[in-house]
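pinning this so it doesn't scroll away 📌
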Amino acid sequence: MSLCQRLAAASMRRAWRTPATSAHVPRACAPSTEARYGPTAAHGDAAPCAVTFSATLRVMPHEATAARCGVTQMRYEITFYVPWVRGWQRAGVNFRSGGHYTRNRTSADEQEIAFRYKRACRDQYGMQVMAPPHVPVTLIIDAYSKGPKRRPKYLPTWLWPRMPFTVKPDADNIAKLMDGLNGVAWHDDAQVTKLLVIKHDRNYLGNEETAFTILWEEPDEEKQDCRDR
């Protein structure tokens, strides 16, 4: 057995002897001998140098506490649409005072986003829902734009008729319109820990719209005290 193989076998033995509580891996989820050393290790062959771990279950401390106390997670998912694809406009400058201001079209777009979110909440939950403070929120934005019926001159031939959405507005400017959901879907946009903006391929047969999907989870209020302890 080579030095590399001996070191690999020693590291695997240390990983197997590590208590499950320190690694957050239950014994039942530990990989078998065949999964750790390969199918030839059971026949007396040397363990290979490259060791591959199988997928293991990782239980976070707060999830284990919630499961022990019987706390049920309430999942919220709200999807709504706006009939346009726009981005945040650069703030205007007041040359008299030197300050900046939000342009009228951006303010109108943010107000429409907030209105459509409230209407989607009423249709789905019967009331307006808001993510509690400091609860992580996931925001997914899907932008669908119409394309021309004929191939534009700037588009290479090998991309036609796919028409990727490589024109304005920028993806980051589309995401900046989520400021209109402050105080409506969440208390502060700093709660958005996962943000995904997808500019789908353009199609002249489809409708131009932007879909917003907001997701978050919160524990049941009746057993919140048990989780805090």
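📌 and the second one:
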Amino acid sequence: MDSAAHIIVAENRLFLCRESLNLVTSIVTATTSMNYTVQRQLSVAIENQPGRLAAITKLMAGHGINIKDLSVVDNVEQGMIRLVTSDPPACKALLAREGFYVVEADVLVFILKDTPGKLSLLCQALADAKININYAYGSEDSSEEHVRIVMKVSSLEKACQVIQTLQES
């Protein structure tokens, strides 16, 4: 088997492990108020000019890829789009085919009850475990009952353990 085939096999195993973790996590958290999953986020650097985000989102829509979470950050020379989509492998392939450099990362996606202190409790527990929150973005649902937060953390495995401990207490 050549190295490309080994990479594909490894990526498929990683995908299956991630999906199994998401299933177990969903079952475990179904009865708790801190529901979370591990999802694949794509980051894409784009030119910081009018129409670039429109072109990318139109391309994705044309291929049936839905954006579940979105963050756009700008600086002087370029913008950075972070996406959690309905189909990360297809989205990555599509963007790469169009000449974009795509970086993948596993992120935590939380659905939290929108009450004062809920996010603070989570952030403090991660800080106490010496886990850095590299960045986060989120939004509140229209009913103002839940907030969806995407977090990139310094240690995903350790963060999952901390969250599990929070759920058990």
